[in-house]
């Protein structure tokens, strides 16, 4: 079971690994979501319609949110 999990984690970058911090995993998920919203025009137009904004403005907002999707990283304590 562990060897299958390690194989999947090595094969797919977004699946993480044992040393991955919770913040880093959450950032990966948020960035993947924003990239999907930008890449799929119907979803992007849905967000634009729901927020009464232009599609270009929504695309810009999503790209800006990709910089720090979960806020600044937490302070790390080195052991």
From TrEMBL:
GO CC list: precatalytic spliceosome; U2 snRNP
Gene Ontology biological process terms in this record: mRNA splicing, via spliceosome
Superkingdom to which the source organism belongs: Eukaryota
Annotated family: Belongs to the SF3B5 family.
Stated name of the protein: Splicing factor subunit
Organism this protein belongs to: Rosa chinensis (China rose)
UniProt lineage: Eukaryota, Viridiplantae, Streptophyta, Embryophyta, Tracheophyta
């Amino acid at each position: 079971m562990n060897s299958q999990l390690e194989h999947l984690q090595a094969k797919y970058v977004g699946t993480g690994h044992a040393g991955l911090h919770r913040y880093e995993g959450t950032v990966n998920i948020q960035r993947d979501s924003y990239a999907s919203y930008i890449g799929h025009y119907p979803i992007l137009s849905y967000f634009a319609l729901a927020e009464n904004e232009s599609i270009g403005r929504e695309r810009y907002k999503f790209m800006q949110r990709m910089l720090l999707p979960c806020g600044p990283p937490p302070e790390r304590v080195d052991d």
